[in-house]
Amino acid sequence: MGTYSHFDQLIPSRVVRCATTPWLFKRAPEPAISFNFGPDRLSIETYLGRNPTTGLLIARDDTILYEHYQYARTDRDRFLSQSMAKTITAMLIGIAISENKIKSIDDLVAAYVPGLAETEYGKTSIRDLLHMSSGVAFSELYDGHDDVTKLGRDLFGDPGKDPIASVAQFNTRTVPPGTQWHYASAETEVLGLVLRAAIGEPVADYLHDRIWGAIGTEADASWAMDGTGQEATFCCFNATLRDYARLGRLLAHDGAWEGRQLIPQRWLLDATTVPPSSGYLAPGAATPYFGYGYQVWILPGAQRRFALLGLRGQMILVDPASKLVMVHTAVRKNTSDRASNAETIALWRGVVEQFGK
Fold first, then answer.
1. Which of 33, 107, 159, 234 has the lowest tally of Cβ within 10 angstroms?
2. Are 31 and 65 in contact (CB under 8 A)?
3. β-bridge partners, 58
4. What is the pTM of this model?
5. What CA–CA distances, in Å, run from 338 to 235, 271, 298, 341, 344?
6. Backbone angles phi, psi at 106, to 5 degrees
């Protein structure tokens, strides 16, 4: 369990320095929160009592409504994001495009990473990688024998493998790009290689300069690196709960922070909306519940709501209309647990119902 709040002590990581001056949330008196789950009406205390949640924070715009920690975790612990990091990578791609460091998301990967020129990933557009629809075969079953295990072993093992060589081994295209959604962490790793090549500096430093320092973070964050010093952009970013809430607030404001546009608004809208021409990405089509944008999960319903998700219960849920954000960190036994996810989503729906008016 300690791994999830001490990950950067186990894996070499690059520090993302906090803001010089922190931006502070206001606080409201803690409300009673309840929600419907199946036939039951449950309290948030019942939820925490029966789920291995390490931290739970609910904020509405600039005000924290609820902040609790369990299992001896505190507001000073940095929590492992797992795949929530994928969304951060996609937001940095959007910034790099706005700065003309990446010319277009329709560019092929090989234009930025020549080492992948002869591979299927090299012949894939940035857009199709953002949508997890390269069509390249990659197994992500979390059984210890799948492709994502191989990728992790390559990047974090001893001796580590060069990340370009590692992603190049996944080289069988099974369907045409841009036609079928298939979750594959290798796609975000390739996006990280594109980003690093385009910006000419470490991804963590770019994150600090463009986002982390600007949103008034109160604590240093960290991003795990492979043996070559490249951030593992498909995972392994670590931050405190309130700093994740600051990131969620930035996303709730469509990339603006206190009047300053940090991530292009158009990018964020595109990232969190399924285009009519890409029905395969829609909620109910990509997965039985969620849809998928640019490395971000889209909730069903008429209102635009979205989520950053990571294995074992890591989540940031965002409702731009009401500026509600919920940050949830956990250490679930099962890597991917739909039943537990369903209860967390039910809690979120209850929160939006109660405070989103």
1. 159
2. yes
3. 66, 326
4. 0.97
5. 20, 24, 16, 5, 10
6. -90, 0
